[in-house]
Each structure stands twice: as C-alpha cells, then as structure tokens.
Write a structure and sequence with these properties.
Layout (H helix, E strand, L loop, with lengths): L8 H24 L11 E3 L12 E5 L4 E6 L5 E8 L6 E5 L5 E10 L2 E6 L12 E5 L14 E8 L14
Length: 173
C-alpha cells in the first residue's frame, strides 16, 4: 500500500523553513559545545595489575590517584616537576611536566578496576622525545562497562630535548 500526503505550497515552504531553522540551531549548538579532550596517543590494554617497568633509558615512579606535584630527579641528575590532576570522580588523569625541567614522560600506565591502560609517547606515536603532558587518560572499562576509579599511576621518565624555558634543552632522548 502506498500513502501520499499532499500539502499546499505555503505549507511546503513553512516546513522547509522550519527544517532550515532546526538544522541551523543544531549546528550552532554543536559548534558552541566544548570540544571533548582525548589523550594524544591510543591506550594499550594491559591485563591484570602490571609491574612498574620502563623501556631502556627510562626511570619509573608509581603515584596514587591524587592531585599532587612531584619533584623528579633522574639518575643522570636531570630534574623536572610532574603535576598530576585527577578528576573529581577519580576516573580521569591529566598530567604535565613544568617547562623548566629537563625530563619528559615516555609512558604512563593507568590502573583501575581489574586491568590497566598504557599510553606510550614514542616516535611511532609522534613523540620521539616523549611528552610534557596529556589529558583525560583512563583505565579500561570494568566488567560492568564503566570507567573505574584510578587505583594508581605509573610514569616512565626520560631525559628531554624540550626547551626548558631558558633556552637550554635537557639531555638527549
């Protein structure tokens, strides 16, 4: 069976105008909405509770999921300040290295629930010298399909070639 509805020309024009108005309103609403932040690199799923391990040349630090600042000194004497921010619900990690330092982050492992996610900042991911920060890192979804609260975070640091704020880079990465 085929059913057709006829509309007058004025009704057709009004319907088109309404459609244009709704499309414009939706487009403006989407443009005004804040952009959702995402990590700079994709996470690598790690089953279970991984040990703190770093690639060759890296040095590790395990921290609890609290807003804090850590002064880090590598064995070669290069230093930096790590800033850790955890979301109010305990599920999102944002970190940064103060630009006055001589270190960078090579990887971050975020543990929460039964498993962990590792974020690697290397040449294969566009970060040959590590990174000085990233936003919205999470642990993997739990069996209930939710992002669990973070239980701990492992950072691996490397000497950095980033400008440390006074024209001098750190060591070599």
């Amino acid at each position: 069976m085929r059913v057709a509805t006829r509309m007058s020309r004025s009704a057709v024009a009004a319907t088109r105008l309404l459609g244009v108005g709704l499309t414009t309103a939706v487009a403006v609403g989407l443009a005004a909405a804040p952009a959702s932040a995402a990590p700079d690199v994709p996470p690598i799923f790690i089953e279970g509770n991984p040990a703190l391990t770093c690639p060759a040349g890296g040095e590790g630090l395990r921290v609890p999921p609290t807003d804090a600042e850590y002064e880090v000194e590598l064995e070669n004497g290069e230093t930096g300040v790590l800033n850790v921010d955890i979301s109010d619900d305990g599920t999102l990690l944002t970190f940064s290295i103060d630009l006055g330092g001589e270190i960078a982050v090579r990887s971050v492992t975020v543990k929460g629930g039964p498993n962990a996610n590792r974020y690697v900042y290397d040449a294969a991911n566009g970060f040959p010298n590590g990174t000085t920060g990233d936003d919205d890192l999470v642990s993997p979804l739990n069996p209930g399909g939710n992002i669990p609260e973070i239980s701990h975070i492992d950072f691996c640091f490397i000497p950095s070639d980033y400008d440390n704020g006074n024209g001098n880079g750190g060591g070599t990465a």
